[in-house]
């Protein structure tokens, strides 16, 4: 563990470094530098920036290894910085832009007020996250890109490390653009899928599944999981769903799933199972975002999942660690 001075001063520096990183992502600097170095004036003109201000950001980006000086007030992109290009596999550009989006940035900065009050300052200003996204299509698309990028290594871990029933129907509850469902169906060619999500999301899910050649094996329906979920599934996947809600609302979702599932079915919760010790863990970082953005949103420990599932008539049967800090919690009817 670093000593306390290193930890505290490092955290202060992280704010400044992230702001420079966000500027790089928002202005598309990596895309502009993708084909070779540019001097600061030319780069500023291409991305619509104030050259003297941009020069100071480039100096910070060079200090963390994302760009490098190329002589005559010019900068070149490094291999590390290439991860912010929008046209490369596993690009992190959308993820950085989403975390720096106005509402997210406000939410984290107002965390002290949230903790004092017990209610999210974000919700007070912007409403529930998904209402905010529905009202702002550009932000919604950016959020979808962020969730897709975040899900890639986790989804690959799910397909490799979990054994699905060969001929099951999987219902992906709040399945977003359908990338998780597509990955599972490709890995399990005899399975079928149903994706449920809100009306403003499902068209993009249909496009994804059609592009993946899965339109004949996957149905997409719009709906509200607080009202009901599609019946007759053998596997119900809740990926990054329950942590958005407090125990009362999460229990409503689980009860709807329990009522809809086939006998002998199973529920898979793809989130984070918090450790019981005080060691650093990605889930504890994510929990600060849940606290800031949602009223009642929370990451949960194994015992907390077990108690919640028990109230819905389900038993926690195992937890599979998928890598990248993610866990798969499996539950079956009691």
TrEMBL record:
PANTHER family: O-METHYLTRANSFERASE CICE (PTHR43712:SF2), PUTATIVE (AFU_ORTHOLOGUE AFUA_4G14580)-RELATED (PTHR43712). InterPro entries: COMT-like, COMT_C, COMT_dimerisation, SAM-dependent_MTases_sf, WH-like_DNA-bd_sf, WH_DNA-bd_sf. GO terms for molecular function: O-methyltransferase activity; protein dimerization activity. Residues 111-314 form the O-methyltransferase C-terminal domain. SUPFAM superfamilies: S-adenosyl-L-methionine-dependent methyltransferases (SSF53335), Winged helix' DNA-binding domain (SSF46785). Keywords: Methyltransferase, S-adenosyl-L-methionine, Transferase. GO terms for biological process: methylation. It comes from the Bacteria. The active site is at 243 (proton acceptor). The keyword Transit peptide does not apply. This is Hydroxyneurosporene methyltransferase. It comes from Nonomuraea cypriaca. Residues 18-82 form the O-methyltransferase dimerisation domain. The keyword Cell division does not apply.
């Amino acid at each position: 563990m670093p000593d306390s001075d290193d930890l505290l001063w490092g955290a202060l520096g992280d704010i400044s470094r992230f702001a420079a990183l966000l500027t790089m992502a928002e202005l598309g600097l990596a895309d502009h530098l993708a084909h070779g170095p540019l001097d600061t004036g030319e780069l500023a003109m291409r991305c619509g920036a104030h050259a003297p201000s941009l020069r100071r950001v480039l100096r910070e980006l060079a200090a963390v290894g994302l760009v490098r000086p190329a002589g005559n007030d010019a900068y070149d992109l490094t291999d590390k910085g290439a991860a912010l290009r929008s046209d490369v596999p596993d690009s992190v550009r959308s993820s950085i832009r989403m975390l720096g989006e106005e509402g997210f940035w406000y939410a984290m900065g107002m965390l002290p007020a949230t903790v004092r009050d017990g209610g999210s300052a974000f919700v007070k200003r912007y409403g529930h996250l998904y209402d905010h996204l529905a009202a702002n299509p550009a932000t919604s698309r950016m959020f979808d890109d962020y969730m897709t990028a975040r899900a890639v290594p986790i989804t690959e871990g799910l397909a490799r490390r979990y054994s699905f029933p060969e001929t099951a129907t999987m219902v992906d509850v709040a399945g977003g653009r359908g990338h998780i469902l597509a990955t599972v169906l490709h890995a399990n060619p005899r399975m079928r899928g149903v994706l449920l999500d809100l009306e403003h999301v499902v068209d993009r899910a249909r496009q994804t599944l059609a592009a993946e050649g899965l339109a004949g094996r996957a149905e997409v329906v719009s709906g509200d999981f607080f009202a009901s979920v599609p019946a007759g599934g053998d596997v119900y996947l809740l990926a990054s769903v329950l942590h958005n809600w407090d125990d009362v609302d999460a229990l409503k979702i689980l009860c709807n799933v329990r009522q809809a599932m086939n006998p002998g079915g199973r529920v898979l919760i793809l989130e984070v199972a918090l450790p019981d010790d005080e060691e650093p863990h990605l889930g504890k970082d994510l929990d600060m975002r849940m606290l800031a953005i949602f009223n009642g949103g929370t990451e949960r420990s194994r015992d907390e999942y077990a108690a919640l599932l028990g109230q819905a008539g389900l038993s926690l049967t195992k937890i599979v660690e998928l890598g990248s800090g993610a866990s798969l919690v499996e539950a079956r009817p009691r």
